[in-house]
Structures are given as structure tokens and as C-alpha cells.
Amino acid sequence: MRRGETDATEWALNYVKEKAPELLSVMACSEVPMDLQLCKAAEEGRSCFADQKCSASALALQNIVKKLIKTELENSVACWESGSDK
């Protein structure tokens, strides 16, 4: 972390726990391998999916995104079936 920056990890985790606890089932930073190319792409504001430089972490991130989408779709279907408009 750079001087003057604060780590927002704890705040973000608490926010997710409060506002969207269902996401905790798919949140897994340990599923994404440490990848210097991924860090570099993030620092430069580039997508890690744009090139093959961070292919290992890109695949792991794609799997997490798929889990998030699946969970959201399941929640939407459950709300629709129950007649709830959560």
C-alpha cells in the first residue's frame, strides 16, 4: 500500500456481509492465484481479460464471475417464483 492510502478490505467485507451476504458464498480471493501481471493490469486500469499475460488469474476470475451470475440468477428466479420483488 502506498503512503497516504488506506486499506478498505475490512470495510468492504463488512459492507458485503450487511448488504449482500449471499455473495460471501462465492467470494474467495484465495481462488485467484497471485499474479504480478494481474496486479500490473489493475494498476494500469487494463482488463486482465484483454490479453494472455495473466491467463491463470483471468480464468479464476471468470469462474468467480460465473458463480456470482449463477447466484444472482437463482436469487432472481426464487424471488419471481415466490412473488417477492426483493
Can you walk through the features of this model?
- There is one protein chain.
- This protein is mostly helical and 86 residues long.
- The protein has one domain (9-82).
- The chain is 56% helix and 0% strand.
- The chain is built from 3 helices and no strands.
- The radius of gyration is 16 Å and the shape is flat.
- It starts with 8 loop residues before the first helix and ends with a helix.
- The mean pLDDT is 75.
Number of β-strand runs: 0
Q: Average pLDDT across residues?
A: 75
Give me the Rg, rounded.
Answer: 16 Å
Query: What is the distance, rounded to the nearest whole angstrom, between the alpha carbons of the first and last residues?
Result: 38 Å
**Coarse shape:** flat
Q: How many separate domains?
A: 1
Count of helical stretches: 3
Q: Give the percentage of residues in beta strands.
A: under 5%
Low-confidence runs (pLDDT<50, min 5 residues)?
A: none
Brief characterization of the structure:
This protein has helices at residues 9-19, 36-44, 55-82. By secondary structure, it is mainly α.
